[in-house]
Hints:
Layout: H1 14-17, H2 22-32, H3 94-99, E1 129-134, E2 140-143, H4 144-151, E3 154-162, E4 166-176, H5 177-184, E5 192-197, H6 205-209, E6 218-222, H7 223-226, E7 232-237, E8 240-241, E9 251-253, E10 266-272, H8 279-283, E11 307-313, E12 316-321, H9 329-332
The structure holds ligand MTE and molybdenum atom (MO).
Amino acid sequence: MPHILLPPGWNGRERDVTDPGVYQHRRAFLRQLGLGTVGLLTAGSALGCAREVAPGASATPEGPLDTIPSNAPRDGYPAPRDARFTVERAATDRLSASSYNNFYEFIGDPSDIKKVWPYTGDYEPFPWTLRVGGLVEHPFEIGLEDLFREMGLEERIYRFRCVEAWSMVIPWTGFPLRKLIDRCRPLSTATHVRFISESRPRQMPGVRTQPWYDWPYYEGLRLDEATNELAFVATGMYGEPLTKQNGSPLRLALPWKYGYKGPKAIARIEFVNEQPATFWNDLQPSEYGFLSNVNPNIPHPRWSQASERFIASASNVNRVPTELFNGYGEWVADLYPDEPREPTRPIAR
Ligand SMILES: Nc1nc2c(c(=O)[nH]1)N[C@H]1C(S)=C(S)[C@@H](COP(=O)(O)O)O[C@H]1N2
Ligand SMILES: [Mo]
C-alpha cells in the first residue's frame, strides 16, 4: 500500500480525522440553515486557504445548478422511472442536494468543506474515457457517450445516507452496476472490484491543497455486492446529467451503504482477487470499515447512528430513525449474515 501522509496535527484533533468532518459540517450546516454561526472553531490550519487558479481557469459558476457540463451527453434524459425504487418521502430539494456536498477533491474553503460547487469551475469532465482492467478477459477503454448508449438509462429514487448522520432522497439517472460488470467479463477468479476516481490537480483545488490525502480516491466492493440489483451507476440526478459537485461524469449510488462507499468521477474499474484497500478505511480503519452498511446498531466510535437528520430542504430538516441497511434489507440482508440486527457496543469493523 502507498504511504498515507497524515494531515498536520493529525493526532488528537478531531477536525482532522473526521471523514466527512462532522466538525465543519455542524457549522456549515447551521449556516446553510440560516441559523447563524456557532462557536467558531477556527479551521485555520497549516494549509491555509489560498485558491490557486489553474491556467485558463473558467469563471466561477454562478450557482450550484450552473455546473452541469455543457457537453454532457443528454440522450436518454429524462429516463423512464423504475417503479420498484421509489421512496415515500418526497425527494430532497434539488438545490440542497447540489449545494451541500462531500467531494474532497473540490474543497476550496477549509472553513466550509461542504460548499464545493464554487470550486468546480476548472473541471472539464467530458470527453471521458472509462478504463477497465485487472482480472478480466480483455482490458478495455470506453468513451462515456458510447457506454451510456449501450447501457441505456433509467431513473431510480433512492434514500441516501452519509456516515455523518444526515440523509437525503435523490432521484438518480443511470444504469445497474451489474450491467456494466457483465460487460467487463470478469474472470472467475475475481472476488472484488475496485473503483478509482479521477484526480486532476489543475482542475481540482482540493487535490492541490490537501496533499496528505492519498489521491486518487479509491473504493471497492465484493463482487456479490457490486452485482446486487440495487448497486447503481449514476450519470444524472433530477432528470439531468450530474453536476460536477455531485460526481460528474459518473459515480456510484449504493443506497444501503454510507455515502463514502460511492466514489464520484470514476476513471477506472479493476477486478481483483482479494479485499481491496479503500480511501477512508486506510485513513481511519477504526471508524470507516470496508463494508460500511448503514446500520443503526453499529455506532460510529464518535457518534450514534441510531437516527439521522433528513434534509428535505435547507429549511426543512427532520430527525428520523435510521433503518437497518437504510431500509433496503429486502434486497441486501442475505449478503450480510454477520451484520448486527440488534444494538452493539462500538467496535472497529
Ligand atoms: N471521489 C470522491 N467520491 C466521494 C467523496 C469524495 O470526497 N471524493 N465523498 C463521498 C461521501 S463521504 C459522500 S457522503 C458522497 C456525497 O455525495 P453527494 O455530495 O452527491 O451527496 O460522495 C462520496 N464519494
Ligand atoms: Mo459521507
